[in-house]
Design goal:
This protein is mainly alpha-helical and 224 residues long. It has helices at 2-13, 17-65, 112-125, 142-147, 169-173, 180-193, 210-216; strands spanning 94-95, 152-153, 162-163, 220-221.
């Protein structure tokens, strides 16, 4: 088949065998170059569909949470509007304790990864005692943490507490404020000296600082 093709090219086009081989190799490459823009366009179109689906999903989630969609009265987009978001006074904020990783993404500067990190921090912590705790989330910028409260109302529901006199080392170490080393020390001290009666008992462990005990104490239960 190839020999017949080379013979045809030599007979009718006057090409040598070397020139014929080059032409045969060039044709698939030329076909690839021609089809490449169509392939790229199809891939980009698919990405746009996925992005639009995510946007629609976010809008639906916000609508369920009580946010009302609004349109700008201006005929054009003003880039200066992205500098600072000012919400209308009539917008009803969501309680932060009820926020999920989808609704958190309405805050400029918070994407899917950071939103998931914030929710995980809140759940592992057992609830927030004060707003500034959000600044402890890994990678959270201070200005972004402050901006969250333009969209969400801070609330302090019943904190989920750790039973310090019953929890094992692994349970203690799951709390963001307790490392594995601290958990081992607490467990060993409890076994040696008996149950803790208050947060002040933790100060009997000389390696623990008063600031750390004060920060941790709202999340501790001392019932046996």
């Amino acid at each position: 088949m190839i020999k017949k093709l080379f013979y045809f090219l030599k007979l009718y086009l006057g090409l040598s065998n070397k020139e014929s081989k080059g032409l045969v190799l060039f044709i698939p490459f030329l076909f690839f170059i021609i089809c490449l823009p169509f392939f790229i366009q199809k891939v980009q179109g698919r990405k746009s569909e996925i992005k639009q689906y995510r946007i629609d999903y976010l809008i639906d989630s916000l609508s369920i949470s009580g946010f009302e969609p609004a349109t700008s009265p201006l005929p054009i987009f003003n880039p200066l509007d992205t500098g600072k978001v000012i919400l209308p006074a009539s917008v009803q904020k969501i309680l932060f304790s009820e926020a999920d990783s989808i609704t958190l993404q309405i805050v400029p500067g918070i994407g899917p990864a950071m939103a998931s990190r914030v929710i995980k921090f809140r759940e592992n912590l057992g609830g927030l005692v004060h707003k500034d705790q959000l600044k402890e989330v890994f990678g959270m910028k201070e200005e972004v943490a402050d901006q969250i409260w333009n969209y969400f109302d801070f609330d302090r529901p019943s904190l989920r507490k750790i039973s310090i006199n019953q929890a094992d080392i692994n349970t203690l170490a799951k709390h963001p404020y307790i490392g594995y080393g601290e958990a081992k020390v607490i467990f060993a001290f409890r076994n040696q000296h008996g149950p803790f009666s208050s947060a002040d008992d933790l100060l009997k462990i000389k390696i623990f600082k008063e600031d750390w005990v004060k920060k941790l104490s709202p999340y501790l239960s001392f019932s046996d």
